[in-house]
Amino acid sequence: MALSFTCYASLITKSQDQLNYSKYNGVEKVKSIIKKTVIPSVSCSPVESLQKGNWVKLICGASFEDLVDIRNLSLVYTLAGVDCIDCAAEASVVNAVNEGIEAARALVPIRRPWVMISVNDDEDLHFRKAEFDPDDCPQDCTRPCEKVCPANAILQKGGVLAERCYGCGRCLPVCPYDKIRAITYVRDVTATAELLERDDVDAIEIHTSGREPSVFKELWSGLGNSTTNLKLIAVSFPDLRDSTISAMKAMYAIMEANIQCFNLWQLDGRPMSGDIGRGATRNAIAFARKLASAGDKPKGFLQLAGGTNDHTVEGLKKEGLFQMTTVHEASRYETIPSSLHSPNALIAGVAFGGYARKIVGRVLSSVHSHHGLARVEDFPEQLLQAIIESLALVGTVKCYNIQKPST
Ligand code: SF4
Ligand code: SF4
Questions:
Q1: Exposed end of the chain (fewer CB within 10 Å): N or C?
Q2: What residue stretches are annotated with the 4Fe-4S ferredoxin-type domain (predicted)?
């Protein structure tokens, strides 16, 4: 059954009387509407999504640590049917993601997305924070840093709110007085290994430049047996042009003996830029085209990231890469239980970060600005708006049959 956008829209545009129902009735209304909706991915396991080519991952951000936003984003995107939620490798962040997932499952008995933590083997754009001393800023500065920040991480008249800064770097070049510094960091391998032992962490992603096998090996060795019970191991890396396949082979050779689950290559096109617009997704698609046609790459699903947005699937379709399968790919998984055998898609799916956060963040920030540290499910009107936004994006990959409400 198709999900009708109009049913959500009509609820939202109901009279104010109906919107003013009690919180309890509001949540019950949300429950009843969602229950009537059949979202195809809900019955589809994350592994099946990878194989079919309709895997969707929400990237909360390797450095984003605003716990209220993370919880609410996780709730909304769980309801939209994502397969995985990727977050910072911090216990409090992992708790917030799992709380959001369980809050969603309390509304609807939906299958649980995998929880992935992101770490780095060396300096990496995703693992940095901007910082400046507001007392050191000229009084008459027009504060372009504040305007350019996509995360609302720069406080009015203040400095950077560290938990909201995810290191996109856009504020750095716009400061006319060169007051902003970028502080980079590497996640602690021992703390990461402890997180991986938790029952509510299913996957890890290693961000790497791909150029230094020795630092990759050091991190991998440091993780020891902590990866044994994982469901997925992902490696996120940029397009290294002619060295891409050799770098993948070197990394796979390091991991191979200890991989006891699926593995995935995250093709990081243009990092942290999906919210900028249509063109941002081109690099990820070009990267995917190159790897999909490479015959000698090591085993592992391919997934796009970096600049992904609501134009990504359209671009993949133009390249003939969207949900196309080859028998050759299926044969690469001969060690996997027969129940999971099926031809694999050339491209397993898409991860959405900045764009996903932006479209739902608009709704969440209206809740927070009026109600402080709020649970989005206590505000049915906003929850439904957030669900509409997230379904429209996730639906580009999952092929939900959604009719947009007429304006
Ligand atoms: S613009 Fe980017 S790097 Fe600068 S404070 Fe905002 S999120 Fe952080
Ligand atoms: S643009 Fe530079 S000088 Fe101006 S408020 Fe931002 S950090 Fe300070």
A1: C
A2: 128-154, 156-185
